């Protein structure tokens, strides 16, 4: 989770995008693929159950705070947007 002024978050996102696209990650990604391919179907089911529980919890927080988010999302992340009037005050 990250919260902060819009300009600060934009800089963090820019740095993270550079980290995610560097070439040194390729060997790590290939090894991760091999490791994941060796996991059982139950491992994936357990992991998905954890993610579902966490996503449901975050959705409840967003609902309580009135933050809009995509109810159809099914990944690791929930992207919620603060109200426009708060963008530069956070």
Summarize the entry for a quick read.
The protein is 60% helix and 0% strand. The protein is mostly helical and 90 residues long. The longest helix has 25 residues, at 41-65.
SSE layout and pairings?
Layout: H1 6-21, H2 25-37, H3 41-65
Report on this model:
The chain is mainly α. 60% of the residues lie in helices and 0% in strands. The longest helix is centred in the middle third of the chain and has 25 residues, at 41-65.
For the terminal residues, how far apart are their CA atoms? 14 Å
What's the SSE pattern? HHH
Helix content: 55-70%
User: Number of DSSP strands?
Assistant: 0
Task: Determine the number of helices (DSSP H or I, runs of at least 4 residues).
Answer: 3
Shape, principal axes of CA atoms: flat
Instruction: Work out the strand percent.
Output: under 5%
Query: How would a crystallographer describe the biggest sheet?
Result: none
**What is the rounded Rg?**
17 Å
Parts with pLDDT < 50 across at least 5 consecutive residues: none
Please state the structural category: mainly alpha
Quote the average pLDDT: 83
Key features of this structure:
90 residues, 3 helices, 0% strand, flat
């Amino acid at each position: 989770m990250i919260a902060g002024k819009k300009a600060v978050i934009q800089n963090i996102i820019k740095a993270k995008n550079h980290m995610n696209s560097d070439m040194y990650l390729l060997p790590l990604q290939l090894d991760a693929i091999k490791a994941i391919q060796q996991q059982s179907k139950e491992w994936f089911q357990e992991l998905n159950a954890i993610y579902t529980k966490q996503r449901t919890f975050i959705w409840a927080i967003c609902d309580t705070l009135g933050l809009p988010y995509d109810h159809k999302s099914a990944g690791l992340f929930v992207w919620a947007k603060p109200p426009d009037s708060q963008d530069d005050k956070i």
